[in-house]
Amino acid sequence: MTIFYPDLSHYDLDRGVTVQPGTVAVLAKATHGTLFLDRGYPILQRQAAAVSAVFGGYHWLNHGDGASQAAFCFSHVGRVPVMVDAEDMPNNSGYNGPLTVPDIVDFVSGLRARGGICNLVYLPRWYWSDHMGSPDLTPLARLGLGLVSSNYTTYSDTGPGWTPYGGMAPVVWQYTDAQPYSGSHCDFNAFRGTTEEFRALINGGDMEPADVWNFDGIPAPPGIEPHPDKNPTWTPVSYLRYVLAPLPAKVDALAARLDKIEKSLDGQHPSAPTVDRPTQEQVNAAVLAAMKDPDVQAGIAAAIAAHLKVV
């Protein structure tokens, strides 16, 4: 089965386009760099909800400062799934040079660190080859991102839009920018799967074992701001990411301190009677004591969550 859906922005609304009954999914432009929120985004979100369409936003990415762009995007979309739109060109608002793979990684990592959802990247083959120099895209695959290609031609389930590049095979193909729709025309995309499979894709629902954690119900912890989407409860995964994200850095700092202590001990005269090197049992006891620190416990949970690709 293949489903087809539009991606839209205020430009489409200005031409009189509205989300039509029977539309299975909609992606709407949400934010652009750190410059503006697309004025069509909240309108299209309401229209998609009215026809029970799967909904996501997309962020137009500028080169550089992915963390600030992620913060700006998250402040507007919260937990709505986001696709990165990686095709910035001269004369576009905020253009600061051609995009790079690290630009995409920085934005996605920054958005996820805030509790955001990002599992798609629109990166056309022409942009990848002509403006990025045909880089290896496996860093994006390692992030669990699905590639959205662009090739405007007659659609088929075996057409050129499904051809891999950069070490990734597209999961969505934007096959036209002129699909008749709502009395006008717009971009249209194909996904080889069901509507529910597409919903799972953009929400990260295909990332086991995260599914078993994907429910609301535990209160926001004391002293922590409410969930960014204003939900008074937290998903356990969101809680782990939001609260425990700093822990890997703390563990690294602890390791550096232990290394410094070890080097200091190595500098002592080995026969000095007043200096005792710690035994393995003492080191084990020190580590167990450190494990009682809530920050250390949280860090280990965050590291496990990251290893399992929990989102």
Description:
The protein is of the alpha/beta class and 311 residues long. 37% of the residues lie in helices and 20% in strands. The protein has 11 helices and 11 strands. Helix 4 links the parallel strand 5 and strand 6. Helix 3 crosses helix 4 and helix 8 packs across helix 11. The protein starts with a strand and ends with a helix.
* Form type: elongated
User: What strand order characterises the main sheet?
Assistant: 1-2-4-5-6-7-8-9
Find the structural class using helix and strand composition.
alpha/beta
Counted beta strands? 11
The main sheet comes to: 8 strands, mixed, barrel
- Give the end-to-end Cα distance, rounded to a whole number of Å: 27 Å
Number of helices: 11
Give the helix level as a range of percent. 25-40%
Q: What proportion of the residues form beta strands (DSSP E)? A: 15-25%
Radius of gyration: 24 Å
The average pLDDT score comes to 83
User: H/E order of the elements?
Assistant: EHEEHEHEHEHHEEEHEEHHHH
Uncertain stretches: 206-222, 224-239
Brief rundown of the structure:
The protein has 311 residues and is an alpha/beta fold.
Explain the layout of strands and helices.
Blueprint: E1 3-8, H1 10-14, E2 25-32, E3 36-37, H2 41-50, E4 54-60, H3 66-77, E5 82-85, H4 101-113, E6 118-122, H5 125-130, H6 138-142, E7 146-150, E8 170-181, E9 184-191, H7 195-203, E10 218-219, E11 233-234, H8 236-244, H9 247-266, H10 280-291, H11 294-307
Parallel strand pairs: 1-2, 2-4, 4-5, 5-6, 6-7, 7-8
Antiparallel strand pairs: 1-9, 2-3, 8-9, 10-11
Helix pairs in contact: 3-4, 8-11, 9-11
